[in-house]
Specification:
five-stranded parallel β-sheet; two-stranded antiparallel ribbon; 50% helix; 223 residues; single chain; alpha/beta; 9 helices; Arc Repressor Mutant, subunit A; Rossmann fold
Length: 223
Amino acid sequence: MTPRATVFVVDADASVRESLELLIDRSGWQARTFASANEFLAHPRVSAASCMVLDVPLPGLSGLDLQKLVSDRTDMPIIFLTGSGDVAMTVQAMKAGAVEFLTKPFRNDILLSAIREALERSGQSRAREMALRSLRESYASLSRREREVMALVVSGLLNKQVGGELGISEITVKAHRGQVMRKMQADSLPALVTMAARLDLPAAWLPELARPVAMTAYGQLSL
């Protein structure tokens, strides 16, 4: 069962927290409320799409401080909801990645629309991260020779040329290439090239002999 999307609310005003919790729960999401940044930071991360509705003035760390501290949580977009915002503050928050900056009093439909958009972004970010994690696991399953073959194949070399670079027969190259395609779950060479690009592997992944000639389908490697 897919866990419900979570909306974190960080606001020092208890009445605001209560009204937002009710609004969020009625909209089908799960609300988690906190009176301060430190309270939120003590809460474990959730394994579901999430976003944060955040006020600026808070006891201790401010909302802008908290935004900086959680900047690595790319799967948790932030919506600022405050009664003390100004243009400079809005610009600072938006430059730091906030998806919206709303002022109190707020219209429910506008806030709910912002939350919906933020949760969609969160779901997309989580899906990308899961796909990349799976891709990294597949790459980690390759043997050293299979990684060498993959590097040369995606650089544009033919099987015969790969064999020449590595000092192995063309038949052996074909066998390794087949294993690479199977383990990486690539159904075509372009798909394998795309995977290599997404992995963003450093130049060290190429065998020494191949580096001077390596040109990939997605651009020149930095060597």
